[in-house]
Amino acid sequence: MTTQLLIIITGLATALLAFAFGFPQWFRVRRTGSVAGISLASVTNSLVSTLAWLLYGLAIKDVWVTTTSIVGLPATIATLVAVMRRSDERDGMWVPLAYAGILTGTAALTPWLPALFPTVLGMSILWFAVPAAITAWGSPDVEGLAQGTWWLLVLDGVVAGAYGLLANVPAYLVYAVVAILGALVVLARIHWRWVPECGECAPIPGCACP
Predict the structure, then answer these.
(1) What distance in Å separates the CA atoms of residue 49 and residue 124, rounded to the nearest whole number?
(2) What are phi and psi of 141, to 5 degrees?
(3) Where are any strands of DSSP class E within 90-165?
(4) CB-based contacts of 210: which residues, under 8 Å, 6+ apart?
(5) Confidence band for 3, pLDDT divided at 50, 70 and 90
(6) How much is the pTM?
(7) Largest separation between any pair of C-alpha atoms in the chain
């Protein structure tokens, strides 16, 4: 199998995963009506990241990076709208603004520091995973979280890493490592069982049942 064929296969796989990624969370919110354990800031960061990846793909003229970003937008936007409609919680919404500012600043430095923006963009999944992990581990209820989203992120990290190696896209290599680790942290919370299990205590900071 030639390298070019592998690039096409892995590129197509990243696009398909990006399209599917946001739907498990959107379906779960629509089905249950619950946003328990979901971070609105995290979902917003995901939209900011997707738009940044789209601009990056256009800048480096990579058809699969661009395509992956475009097909990932519908589910991301749908999830954001669904969560906003069901939650009055707006804590941490300064984070997406700060993140957008960081991306803009590092992009402006590209003529002098060409490796900076791809590195920051590759770590973009942190802005999705970290707020999600903090909210999940600090909440007694994670009924609203869809574990399918996070297993897809693990798979996405593996495929993106393969594409990054084959097509020489450094930002994808950084993304792969961060995505896999971040997803595993959230999945650990979804499957975590701790004592007491009275439904009133979060793992962090924890408490005792009355």
Answers:
(1) 6
(2) -125, 125
(3) none
(4) 198, 200
(5) confident
(6) 0.80
(7) 63
